Amino acid sequence: MRQSFRFVALIASCAASSMALAAGGDPFFESTGSWQQGYADQWGLHRIGFGATAETPSAWQLAAARAQTAQPQSTIVAIVDTGIDFTHPDLARENLWTNAAEMPNGVDDDKNGYIDDLIGWNFADGNNNPWDRAGHGTHIAGIVGARTGNDVGIAGIDPLVRLMPLKVLNAIGRGRSAHIAAAIHYAVANGARVVNLSLGGENLSAVEQRAIAHAAQAGVIVVVAAGNLGRDTAGFGMADLPGVLTVAATDTEDRRAPFSNFGRAVKLAAPGVDILSLRARDTDLIQISGAANYREGAATVGNDFYRVSGTSFAAAMVSGVASWLLSQRPELTGAQAARMIVQSARDIGAPGVDALTGYGIVDARAALAADPTFRIEAAIADVDLSIRDGQTRVRVLGTVDADRFVSARVQAAPEAFPQDWIDLAPPLAQPARNATLAEAEPRALRGARRWVVRALVTHESGRTRESRFTIDLGEAP
Amino acid sequence: MSRPLALLVTCVAVAVATVASCSAHASTVTLGSAEMRSVELGKEVDVEEWAERNGVEPMERVPLAGGGSIVRFPMDEGVWRARSAAMCTDNGVLSCGTDYCQTYFVPQQDPAPPVPEATATLQEDDDDEVRLELRLIESEDAADQRTGVEQTVVAEDGRPLAGARVLLVPRAPPVESLFDAGAPDAFGQPAFDPTKVAGRRSCAEAPSASKLLTALTSDKGSCSFPDAGREGVDRGCWEVITAAACETRTQPLSDVLPEREPQRLLAVAPLAGKDGAIDPKLLASLSQLPGLTVLETSVLASIGRALVRFEVADQAMDPQSALGALRAIAGVENAQHEYRYRTAAQFNDPYAWMNYGARLTGADRLLAATAGAGVRIAVIDSGVDDAHPELAARIAERIDVTGYGLSADRHGTAVAGLIAAEANNNVGAFGMAPSASLVAIKACEPESRNAVVARCWSSTIAKALDAALARDVAIINMSISGPRDPLVASLIDAALAKQRLVVAAAGNGGPDAAPSFPAAHPGVIAVTAIDTKARLYAQATRGQFVDLAAPGVEVPVPVPGSTYPGQLSGTSMASAHVSGVAALLISASPTGAAPAAASPQATKENRAAALRDALESTAVSLATGSSDTRFGRGRIDGCAAARALGQPESCAAAPESSLAAPSPAAPLPATPPPAAPPPAAPPPGGQQ
User: Fold this and answer.
1) Do B26 and A229 touch (CB under 8 A)?
2) What is the predicted ipTM?
3) Residues from chain A contacting residue B120 (CB–CB below 8 Å)
4) How many Å lie between the alpha carbon of A342 and the closest alpha carbon of chain B?
5) Nearest CA among B269, B262, B234, B259 for reference residue B320
6) How confident is chain B (688 residues) per 10-residue block, as mean pLDDT?
7) I need a surface site. Which of A394, B304, B464, B629 has the fewest CB within 10 A?
8) pTM for the complete prediction?
9) Which of A112, A207, A276, A281 has the highest number of chain B CBs within 10 A, making it the mutation to test binding with B?
């Protein structure tokens, strides 16, 4: 049955304009409880701005209204992963990147070193067929760009995306650094504006590091999953690199998922628990990954769809929003788009930027409306404590900066009375990066064993952002 | 439509017992003695020269789309520590370090699964090179009866590797099929008329697996799929994938189990009467067999037999008992499956990375004396592009026996071009015998319009051989491989009896595949493929049946509808080289073989055998012994063969200086690269 159905999806609709519409009929976008859960099947998309309510239009509707005056453009997103099931019924042919400079003839027409790289490349096996044997890459691809408004399956985030499958991981999700690096170079050379890297590990090779730096330098947004080990991203491979968007996963209650890595390198978070997307033909991702106590087929929904958790899929949400934002506002540079996404994230957890979920959960509506230049950075990197003559001395290190900086305050309060902020230093009139922000002996806090330190930056617009750091002095001596 | 298939996996119990669930399983710590390194080189660096200077044997070269490349190679920690400082600061090195085995992050289930009661065994990642051995489970002695696959995985040092993941999965649809204009679906399957064609050309209707067929290898390193190839399973549409850490091996099920057209049978009967047709009474009784429908009857004049093609009605009768019923009918000489074959080439082999023009020893010097004029070669293959400027004047005749119709296909055009493409026409020069003429017999249909791989069948190959034997061809080239077939074997025997030289590809099944047919048939020259440094093509099938080695790794070939060369690898290419050189030797000596030490009694009656003896006895050994399972007698040497055939004048020219960068292992005498430099102008757009 699936085959005939699939081809309908392949030949239909060549008009880009029809794709720019908001999600019409995507059954799983509208439905709830398809696997007896108490939340929307595509809760993640609803949570990041793609659900419409009576009061609030969806991000797609906002974009459609905007598109009457603006000129949306397709964005190429490289999925560096296990490949993509390019015959999936809910993946449109026009959402697959096609190499216009290559023909199916056994000749390297575009002389890029890859023969017949028609829709991407399989670096893992050294051929032109990036077929997905594990199901991971297809799931990611569906989050970013499943066909939207086609009365089939799920909605993808960016209806205009062109997905470039670059297969680097084998049937059990393993792959070589050299292939990952080559795939990133391929993405950059072939016009990808976003590279999704839902992979990694403790180690990072020199070739990968150079490839990612090359991508960042070329203005390509590199989105990296924080990892599922529940650990700090410090020293955790590419997630810890500067210049990438490292994404943590959140659950249906907007809490960091317990498995999600965290840390200073985490820029933002996105839904990553029980995420419904595409199932690659003949795959069962959780089973092939060797999860214990998994009943075969348990995560499959309606044969062609699959639900699974992980920071991989949170990263895909961010890649999708980045793609969608660049499609709607193609004039933006990658750096601008990345900044807009981070700066407009919806804060969760501790107020302000924190080490668990960074700036918060990605918010498509806010990202579309964001000012490309707007930026407030508040980050406490560390707090040094020293005790001299019975007096606790505090040194606060970090960054306070903004594109139109007004002032910054560095304050502390006993954790029990968080509203009683006292200044640790006079307000800073100048931005500071990776510097000592304050040095003080806060007498007012004497006696408290747990303090909260914060850096609060005020922008010319009146908006503020803070970053908090909790100090625990332990039991009183 | 597609029916999901339920197949068995026997290692399920084992698999459950050894599955590791701990998130530490995702660790990418690299163990093992042979750690991998990767080095990024700038675009100005000569990779081969760099590798030699730094004493590394690159396992893979990954081109970078923006220029330059990444070279990946194994190097033990101690050696690396001693040499990395110098290596990594060598000119042109952009980045340099250990190449890790990265992973996706183990997907989490939700809600979180209960804590496992039994302690799971945590399998440490093992980065040793993995070697796979495929063994057959033979439920009976006949290869036809095989249905199961047992997979054994061993590490580099030979110890069994437990915990390797083995999957039995439907083949991936070709990407090219997405570009088939007007194709009815992503696999490019046209309407299927079994009375006109021998079988399906693609896996368009291959069933999806009803469940994931996967297992982990046991402590003995093995696991099995006992009914992987049972009746009803299209063995050409499945593959076995084995993965251990970063190493992956993909093996088509058809390399392990004889591939055949499901629901098709053949019967062979002697021709009756003087008019040479099938006995009408026999045909009548064949037509009345329950559950069998006669699709077609044809005459194979060269062996004096009639061929009857049957369809086995779905579920009416199992093909094994149908075969028994057919054989029981008086007048039926034999009954068999409609076996399936494949053209033996693919592009872009990951293990072979050095570009080179095909260099065939002696061909250039033989060309000084002869160009194969007057020699006719039958190319049994997929369709040949007769409008290609390289081939237009070389093709004497084109014949289609597939029923799919004449077409210009990639594999057939490549093979034809390697044998006889025009010389000196500024389009590219691929042909070994550029004045020979070709009878292009299409017996194979590409799996999709642009696919290199094409399917052929017992009945089409039989008809093709019959057509070749009805014509005056001296050489029959078969760059195809598949299972042993009695019908095809009888036609090959007829060809050999008529002193036709039969050359076939050794197959691309890799080290573990069974001997491929027709290459392994006695009297057929089985040709394996080597690269520019005389290293074996990694995917070549090994075995005692291998006779000769010839270039077959990343060989420039003509492409249908394009004046720009493509590139293919495979024993198909090697076979074509041997056929081309053989044509030169024949045309140098009109009798085909003059008396010589090797064959003092060579006459017209044994000229093919004499030529075969000369080619094999003069081959340059590439192994320590005189013959081995990889290279056979060794690399073909056209000049030495000419001398053995008493044609010293054919190679009068003095040997030229050796290659610019000779390999110490097996230097090849210099030949000008047959591939002309690419045309200065870029290829015109929209050639298709």
Assistant:
1) yes
2) 0.90
3) 292
4) 23
5) B262
6) 40 28 20 72 92 85 92 91 92 94 85 38 41 42 64 75 87 83 47 80 71 82 78 84 85 83 92 84 92 93 94 79 90 93 73 36 68 93 95 96 94 95 65 92 90 94 98 96 94 96 93 86 96 86 93 87 84 95 85 42 71 92 74 90 82 46 35 39 39
7) B304
8) 0.86
9) A207
